[in-house]
Amino acid sequence: MKTIFKSMCVLAPMMLLGACSVANDDKPIVSDSDNKSQQKPNIVIFYVDDLGYGDLSAYGAKHVKTPNVDELANNGIRFTDAHSSSATCTPSRYSLLTGEYAFRNKASVLKGDAAMIIKPEQPTLAKVLKKAGYQTGVVGKWHLGLGDGTKPIDWNQAVKPGPLEIGFDYSFLLPATGDRVPTVYLENHHVLNLEKSDPLIIDYEQKVGNRPTGYENPELERQAADHQHNKTIINGIARIGWMQGGHKAEWKDEDFYKVFTDKANDFIRQNQVDPFFLFFSFSDIHVPRLPNERFLGKSGMGVRGDSILQMDWMTGQVVKQLKSLNLLDNTLIIFTSDNGPVLNDGYDDKAVELLGQHKPAGPFRGGKYSAYEAGTRMPTILHYPNQVKPGVSDALMSQVDIYASVANLVGIDLNQDEAIDSQNRLSAWLDASEPGRQYLLEESYTLSLRDGQWKYIKPTDKKAAWVTNDKNIESGLSPSAQLFNLAQDPQEQHNLAMKKPQKVSELKQKLDAIVKRAQRE
């Protein structure tokens, strides 16, 4: 603790409300009246799934209201140019927790029975905060894999390695996603409510068990599913993959809002004395969208809009808990999303037909899966009353920088081979007038590079016709280089690559240098 306090005085004096003074014996001089202001902040990351830049009223949405999230924005910093590291979910989560781009580990969207892609020996954001004396917890969607991959996961025994092996003290998870089996909760190492007499078996290659499937019994589906999502039917929804047994352990999708909120609030209450880190990873607004009946029909935009209302309520409940325990002022909250929006993502839930005039991606082109801006430009809010004045920041920001910035905040020095892509941008996170990055990498099914308002999209021969045809989202992939000036062309309509070959060459070289980098700069 002595070393941490001293580091905070040197590295981040702006973080302390009182003067920072250290005596010869290296003990901080802090009066009882200063104890509260000198405490390290609690940290809560609200990580929403598939929420677009235009899906919040704080970001201009007119047809759906998000008052609880808006309150965070009104009393914090609302970022207009902040990015997830990837346009898909598993890679974004990997980058946030490890401080390195997902392509370095070939991370992609995982099956529900995949091995964990963060190795137990790997540094993580949770481990950094444990070093600084934090209690750490993750609640909600995981989708980073489980087990070591040496053999298939036995869901009837302790499932590990998992979050507890990479720095979390507590975990309560959807093991993968709502549209993938197993459709059970995993608390720490064990499936909740699983009976030995009804063992759980999962397979992604061939059918197991006698449960009905979407391709055999489409009449049993509450929402029609595409060929990928038409395997075992649970709670009236066909999922990706096959599942046998585990009947008493099954979740009910409509209960997510309460189950996850209660678990998050329980973690906060149980750890209110010491500083804590909560990674609250939402299932909403990912498919299948099955909001609870208290939100059903309230948005006028179908179940996708209703799920946005549910997400907003959940956020408000956690903030209310922080307030009730007198913790909100000294809690750093980051609210953001893992990737851009998608309407039709495997189920016919009328998201397209009931969209109306709502624009999930706001003014930007693309969405989930896309190399265009809407793929990674996320609604991002930082709320920290003890230190942050309300404002709007146009700084270029990346979620991959949360790792190094938080480490600086709590006074932990990083190794050169740790979080190699993460930059300390603490000043920009805490002050809307401070500059962010000059360069920023965006990952989709190719790589892109932002240089200020310039954007270069690397050419690729990859095909993603399914994104355009099935999802109605422009993939942004091209066999030719693309270059845009976002200051003049925020919708990326005018490719300037032919007119500015020197700029293309400059950004290509910079992107190649980032890809080859093996240590933190």
From TrEMBL:
Matches recorded under CDD domains: ARS_like
Keyword terms: Hydrolase, Plasmid, Signal
Residue ranges of domain Sulfatase N-terminal in the record: 41-412
Entry-linked Pfam families: Sulfatase
Signal peptide per UniProt: 1-23
SUPFAM superfamilies from the UniProt entry: Alkaline phosphatase-like
PANTHER family according to UniProt: N-ACETYLGALACTOSAMINE-6-O-SULFATASE (PTHR43751:SF6), SULFATASE (PTHR43751)
Family statement drawn from the similarity comment of this UniProt entry: Belongs to the sulfatase family.
Protein name (database record): Arylsulfatase
Gene source species: Catenovulum adriaticum
Lineage: Bacteria, Pseudomonadati, Pseudomonadota, Gammaproteobacteria, Alteromonadales
